Every structure is written in C-alpha cells, then in structure tokens.
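[Discussion] Sanity-checking designs against the backbone

I'm trying to build intuition for which residues belong where. Below is a structure token string of 113 positions. I'd appreciate it if someone posts a full sequence so I can compare it with mine line by line.
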C-alpha cells in the first residue's frame, strides 16, 4: 500500500471516529504491538459490511511489523470467504491466515502488513 493510500485510509478512519460515537474503542488509537480486534460482538451478527469496514480500520490502526487478530462473528463463516478480497484490495502485501476457530463458532483471522 502506498503512503498516499495509507494516509487516505487514516483520514477516513479518523473522520469516521469523529462522526460515529458507536465505533468500537479499538479504532480510537494506533496499536504499536500485536493485538486482537473483537468483531464478534452482537453489532456484527447481521452486519457483514460493518464487520469488514471495522476489520480494515483495525488493520490500518496496526503499526508495521505487528499483526492484528480479527476475531470474527460465527454468523459469517470462514473469514477468508469475505475478508480476503477487501484486505487484498487495501493491503496487497498483507499476510493473512486463519489461526483457529473459537468455541463459539467464530474465527481468529491474523493479518500482518
């Protein structure tokens, strides 16, 4: 991803944070270590579009050389089926992998840029 694209993503994320009080707390700051983004909350049960938007924002909030574990809601199935393409569109060099399926049926999907 070019610096210009990254800046554009950062501006969109910042703008969304300023106008939408319902954004999850993990979008409020950059993460300078590996971390997990909880995308299995009730709000994502029937809203795959928001789940994808927040997943991309979480990747954007993760400093280089670290990874984010996207913990996805079970209703959406294997994250490769719906997250891989948007991630490739925004972060073509990112490494992705399914780490595990949670006991509740969701997945841990690791992304490192």
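Best answer:
Here's mine. Compare freely.
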């Amino acid at each position: 991803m070019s610096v210009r694209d990254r800046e554009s993503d950062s501006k969109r994320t910042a703008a969304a944070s300023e106008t939408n009080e319902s954004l999850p707390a993990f979008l409020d700051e950059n993460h300078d270590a590996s971390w997990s983004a909880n995308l299995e909350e009730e709000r994502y049960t029937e809203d795959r579009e928001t789940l994808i938007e927040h997943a991309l924002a979480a990747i954007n909030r993760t400093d280089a050389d670290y990874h984010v574990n996207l913990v996805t809601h079970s209703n959406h199935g294997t994250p490769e089926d719906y997250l891989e393409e948007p991630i490739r569109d925004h972060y073509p060099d990112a490494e992705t992998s399914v780490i595990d399926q949670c006991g509740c049926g969701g997945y841990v999907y690791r992304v490192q840029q």
